Amino acid sequence: MTNDLEQEIQEIIDRETTAWNEQSVELLLSIFHPDMVWVWPTDPQSHDPLTWTSVLGKFDYKRWTNIYTDWFSNYQLIKNNRQTQKVFVTQQGDGAFAVVDVDTLWKSVSGEESHWLGRTCKTYVKTESGWKMISQVGVLDYSGLI
User: Fold this and answer.
1) What's the CA gap between 119 and 59, in Å, rounded?
2) What's 103's DSSP letter?
3) Model confidence pLDDT, tens digit, residues 23-80
4) In this structure, are residues 5 and 92 in contact, taking their beta carbons and an 8 Å threshold?
5) How far is it, in rounded angstroms, from Cα 96 to Cα 87?
6) By the 8 A CB rule, do 98 and 9 touch?
7) CA-CA distance, 109 to 130, in Å (whole number)?
8) Cβ 120 vs Cβ 137: under 8 Å
9) Whole-angstrom distance, CA of residue 88 vs CA of residue 74
10) What contacts 24+ positions apart, CB below 8 Å, involve 54-59?
11) Which of 124, 126, 142 shows the shortest CA–CA distance to 134?
């Protein structure tokens, strides 16, 4: 990283990775801004936002706690490889985004796999309590486009 603000964003990315690895709901929720919205493509090849959805809705601590508690109870993490490709901080130092390649594989108690494989863009805002993720597009596969 080339500067302190980029390192602060990388710390959030690393904290999120640790939260998934440790299946820590509290640590995961610590990165989210109260106005966070998580947008998901219908599948990794759905680059057209007209097809996207938002299953979780706007961040709600109690609801998202229940969702992730349920997820961690029903899925075992098989692998979680993440690599930051780019961190960009605005000239004003109050906004940022990160491009992260994700290869995360979960297996449910019934044997169903959920594989998050591709690239995502995470958007952050600086708040009085530090940086928080305010938006993220779910994982997209760009391999045929690059």
Assistant:
1) 22
2) E
3) 999 999 999 999 999 888 988 888 899 999 888 889 999 999 999 999 999 999 999 9
4) no
5) 7
6) yes
7) 37
8) yes
9) 35
10) 59/32, 59/33, 59/34, 59/35
11) 124
